[in-house]
Amino acid sequence: MVDLHYHDEDGSSSSDDEAFFPVLVTGIARYCRRKREASVKKTRKTINRDRAAAHELLVRDYFAEDCLYDDKQFKRRFRLNKSLVLRLCNDLAENYEEWRLGWDGRGRRGFSTYQKVSAALRLIATGQTSDSTDDYIKMADRTSREYTYLFVECLIELYGDIYLRRPTKSDVEELYQAHHAAHGFMGMLGSLDCTHWAWENCPSAWRGQFTRGDHGVPTMMLEAVASHDLWIWHAFFGVAGSNNDINVLNESPIFNDILTGKAPDCPFVVNGNEYKHGYYLVDGIYPEYATFVKAYQHPVDEKRKLFKAAQESARKDVERAFGVLKKRFHIIKYPSRAWDKDKIANIMYACIILHNMIIEEKGRAICMYNLHDAANPHQQFVPGSPQYFARVMEIHSKETHGNLRHDLTGHIYETTTTTTTTSSVFSCYFRASRNEDGLNGTPDSEGIHAWKHISTFPGLLMNWTVLMILS
Known about the structure:
Shape: globular
Number of domains: 3
Structural class: alpha/beta
Radius of gyration: 34 Å
Helix content: 40-55%
Oligomer: single chain
Number of helices: 17
Strand content: 5-15%
Distance between the termini: 127 Å
Number of strands: 7
Low-confidence stretches: 1-7, 432-471
């Protein structure tokens, strides 16, 4: 037998070694037990969700012919009409295999197209957490979150060229006419402004870059152009929230088509002066560019006061668009819980696409998409070329900005004065013809003067005749 004890020179064993030996054996046994337990395969808890029953319940509640909830309740919960949701389901299932019903390698049934699209739309519409779809659609937290990210990516790929398109020549002409009829501004393309979307899960190292004092929390900025029908024609998202509107404009591609020659040439005339490019209504922070129209900061005469009121009223189109966008899709109303900036940007662009689709479906869109419409020309001027810098100087011209604003001020004043005179003429003649100011139905002197004035304008005379018939 081998002697495990250590002996001193005089042959006696050490008492310390005798006490250490049992501790060593116990430690080795404990180590072997841990290794044995670690080698055992651990399995996570599996919840047996009845996906087929959840699909049948969803169809019976919302998608069947005699469904439980009517169209009004459907729209309140999905923010879209049923016809538009069915269109999304059909297009996604037709173009992407991930959105079709399938089975895994063990033969387990997957989610149907209705379940996948409904889960994504519910999260976008309500802004709730991703596990809120588990109790009804039977979709786990991670699965619903992944399908939401996949939904916005596919939506941009399918519909981005239509609902995030640049305006063509025919679109620009229709925008000119619509804005002149609605606001009195000739050559107006839309209104430009920025808004913020709070970022809840912004990394701590980035919080100073994405936080501005007036908001107090990390945000990301969206620059958008909206027309009178609230259609969003331009969207640029992702700039850190600590910037202002001018910093966003310097990074924005809003003028790229004009600078490279890809924008269609659509000149317009105001007060006898021709201008080459359309313009956007902006607030006071933006620079005095030829493609911007700002209100007077301190108007002194009646013309400028009237123009300031008209410009501020028309510029509310983009503010209304932001309000409708956030009210309709609560995921961008509340702070974003995503970590990846690209995924947050995809969600914003997808919400804008859905917003424009709703406007088109309601029949409120000024410009309808035409597949055979003439496309914008290809790039003509290379960045850095003399032609490119000449376009830059055209856009940055303060002289053109001042001349355009002066002509628009005169045009708005003349249009408003004519409208006010016309209403007064109608009122005077109606009072006289209805025997309110004259005798026995005979117009008084004011009414006779009004009739002489109105008879010189065939268009006003026709409108007067229609109003007389309707009255």
